[in-house]
Amino acid sequence: MANDEPATGPSANRGRRSEAWKSALTVIQEAKPPVVPEGAHAMTVVVEFPPGDPGTPPHRHFGPAFGYVLEGEMLFELEGEPERVIRAGEAFWEPGGDVIHYQDGNHRSDVPVRFLATMMCLPDKPMLVLVDEDELEQRKHLRAPRPS
């Protein structure tokens, strides 16, 4: 290449500032989580359930959790809220604490669901605790009405 020929490829952008960052961000969700105590840590996981799988049994997280569906559709239900379908490209969050997470299973019977979740772990608490049948019965009045 002669010295008077223009540079092409990645080196052509050296020394100039890109403006792409101004439109590169898409807000998927915005939430104000509860205060995270000192000593907490975060864990990010990818969860995949096969077609039709009901997902994790009713459980709770002691800290907030934020997620994003990568593929497929998740049937999502938190205590006090109606169940809803979260599709690929959509986000979800839960406050953690005492709230029961009833459903995170695959809404589709023909494709897997994959989602990413970042969970805040409180000091000296497990990441996830299953809720037993006795507690589910005691708290059934807090669950949103089921679809008929």
Radius of gyration: 21 Å
Q: Strand fraction band?
A: 25-35%
- What's the pLDDT, averaged over the residues? 89
Give the helix tally: 1
Q: How many E-type strands?
A: 9
CA-to-CA gap between the ends?
72 Å
N-to-C SSE string, H for helix and E for strand: EEEEEEEEEH
Low-confidence stretches: none
Q: How much helix is in the residues? A: under 10%
Strands of the widest sheet, in order across it, are: 1-8-3-6
Helix-strand makeup class: mainly beta
The description of the largest β-sheet is:
4 strands, antiparallel
**Global geometry:** elongated
Describe this protein's structure:
- The chain is mainly β.
- The chain contains one helix and nine strands; from the N terminus they run βββββββββα.
- It has one helix spanning 133-138; strands spanning 41-49, 59-60, 65-71, 73-78, 84-87, 91-94, 101-106, 113-121, 129-130.
- Strands 1-8-3-6 form a four-stranded antiparallel beta sheet, with no helix packed on it. Strands 5-4-7 form a three-stranded antiparallel beta sheet, with no helix packed on it.
- 18% of the residues are buried.
